[in-house]
UniProtKB/TrEMBL annotation:
Residues 244-392 form the Thiolase C-terminal domain. It holds the Pfam family Thiolase_C_1. It comes from the Bacteria. It comes from Streptomyces polyasparticus. InterPro entries: Thiolase (IPR002155), Thiolase-like (IPR016039), Thiolase_C_2 (IPR055140). This is Acetyl-CoA acetyltransferase.
Length: 392
């Protein structure tokens, strides 16, 4: 195994990305999806498995990174099992980039896999009645505060404060589906309209069914490496330019403002560290378990002013040919959402910057490829955020 180099100045690149089989995968375990995504990402990078000396994983097993690393045949000297919900993977990417820059690791593999859809279908998963029975959540759980209802309350507050409309929230779902139409691997590709979204069955006011993410199976993997290994990579590097992370609350009564997500802090840090501004960004990959998440995160990252997200998402701005192509693969609303989607944001951002998105490829004026992307994950019920700026 290569010896880590002590340096605070090494640049960090993403050398390999991949997805496992996604959507409806009834014949695989979560471990198998981890392994499939990892093998594909390593093949994508063209690098040798022996280079990997760092590993990050969460959400599977009692000793998450240890069990999965053993399954993959990896014995890392740097590990991370940070678990902060959907933003986990952006936070892990930030930690990995710091470790590589400091010489504590040379190549860090981030990997995730879940059979969230198949588990429900096969009724293999049972309810955990102790969830929230202890700690701060015990004061909310008896009143029926489900995860979706927390997001719904936040959306209603934004509507009350700023006049955001149901039609504007629906636009997020419509445009995500328009992008998914160009992604052959998306679970849902047929076009939808604002009226379709509004007419759907109510799940948690104001969210109807199409305001909510799909449930899928699937896995993803991302390989980050130090700059000296880029020359041996099979693909052009995508550089990690800056990252930020922030945690906000777990109890809703401790959330100071339902209209401000923790991305307001993680995004500011990421942009400052990358030395770029939201105006420089070509594409955005935003965690979208619900339509409101996309809208408020775009505000908090600085793409528009607070309260202007509703108007910002209108007129096709988030589509592949819009002013700010967002969730270019169709996002969690249409492409795939296997429990924690943060790693999928990084995979799609890298593919777009490389020009590998096929019919879903974003092109700038003159047919140019995008230069800069932001991937911003959200965990829990706006409990955490991780933001990463990537560039060619």
């Amino acid at each position: 195994m290569p010896t880590a180099i002590s340096s605070a100045h090494r640049k960090v690149a993403i050398a390999g990305v991949a997805l496992s089989d996604c959507g409806k995968v009834d014949d695989a375990t979560p471990y198998a999806l981890h392994a499939q995504a990892a093998r594909r990402a390593l093949a994508d990078s063209g690098l040798d498995k022996g280079l990997i000396d760092g590993f990050a994983s969460a959400g599977l097993g009692i000793l998450a990174p240890v069990e999965v690393a053993e399954y993959l045949g990896i014995k890392p000297t740097w590990v991370d099992s940070t678990s902060v919900g959907g933003s986990t993977w952006e936070v892990m990417a930030a930690h990995a980039a710091d470790a590589i820059a400091q010489g504590h690791a040379n190549a860090v593999l981030l990997v995730y896999g879940s059979t969230a859809r198949a588990d429900i279908k096969a009724r293999r998963r049972t309810s955990n009645l102790s969830f929230g029975a202890r700690g701060p959540l015990q004061f909310e759980v008896p009143y029926g505060h489900t995860l979706i209802s927390k997001y719904a309350m936040a959306a209603r507050r934004h509507m009350h404060e700023y006049g955001t409309t149901l039609e504007q929230l629906a636009e997020v779902a419509v445009q995500a589906r328009a992008n998914a139409a160009h992604n052959p691997d998306a679970m849902f590709r047929d076009p939808i309209t604002v009226d379709d979204v509004l007419a759907g069955p109510m799940i948690a006011d104001p969210f109807t069914k199409l305001h909510c993410c799909i449930r899928s199976d699937g896995g993803a993997a991302v390989l980050l490496v130090a700059e000296e290994y880029v020359a041996d990579s099979a693909k052009a590097p995508v550089w990690v330019l800056g990252a930020g992370e922030h945690v906000s609350h777990t109890t809703m009564s401790e959330w100071e403002d339902f209209t401000v997500s923790p991305a307001a802090v993680s995004g500011k840090l990421a942009f400052e560290r990358a030395g770029v501004t939201p105006a420089d960004i070509d594409i955005a990959e935003i965690y979208d378990a619900f339509t409101y998440m996309t809208l408020v995160t775009l505000e908090d990252l600085g793409f528009c002013a607070k309260g202007e997200g509703g108007a910002f998402v209108e007129k096709g701005r988030l589509t592949l040919t819009g002013d700010l192509p967002t969730n270019t693969d169709g996002g969690g609303l249409s492409a795939q959402h296997p429990g924690m989607r943060g790693l999928f944001l990084l995979v799609e951002a890298v593919r777009q910057l490389r020009g590998e998105a096929g019919d879903g490829q974003v092109r700038k004026a003159g047919g140019r490829l995008p230069e800069l992307a932001v991937a911003s994950g959200t965990g829990g019920w706006f409990c955490s955020a991780g933001t990463v700026i990537l560039g060619r």
